[in-house]
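User: Run a structure prediction on this.
Assistant: Running it now.
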Amino acid sequence: MSNNCIPNLLPSGCPTRDCSDIDLESRTLTSTATSTAIDGTQVIRRIGTTSINGVIIDDVQIPEGFVEIKGIKRTPIINQCKIIDHMLIVEGYIIKDIKYATPIDPTTDTSRCRTYRNNLNDIIIKIPFSFASPLTGLTLPTPTARVKQRYEYFQNSIGPCDKGFMGQSLCDGEEFEQVVLFKPPFAELTSWSIQEGDILRKCDEHCCEGELYTIFTEKIVLTLNFDIFQILLA
């Protein structure tokens, strides 16, 4: 796995260097390992399903204008999907391929011409979205809390004439820290649906000149369906 562009991760197989005036010395003592044979398999289990939806409104301005939208192809793309504290958080975008017709002659009065020729144009836009929804009715695993403890050493340096002190050592101690790596539940997209309302407008003003539409507005209801999985050791 590449670790390019990840802060604080030492590059594998590359020379390192000191980048400050801090001196560093480290030593590794003899290491030991304990192995235990365990029979078992890792199983991915589906523990539930969920649907999340939201409303997206986008205004596409087409400077040259158009007389008609000939077709739209929509493809949702998910680029982040996380389950955090029983909440499903989804981010992504919709790729929209819009085909529209524009008169070859921009001065054409489309309301009075019985016939006229069009150019068929095509544009692609990407509409971002962010959804979040609670996962109700599902029992999800929770991570084990990080354990961190410090043990203070007793020190008695009282000598003749009451020199020194007795109490907690100010220069040494002992710490214990344990972290159990957590395999979180995850979601996979299984299907989606889009329902939309289309509005064609000539401009943002109440009074406009010209016969061509310039703004294409879509009000989209996007529904995403997911399966929820949990990794188990069996």
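The chain has a mean pLDDT of 84.
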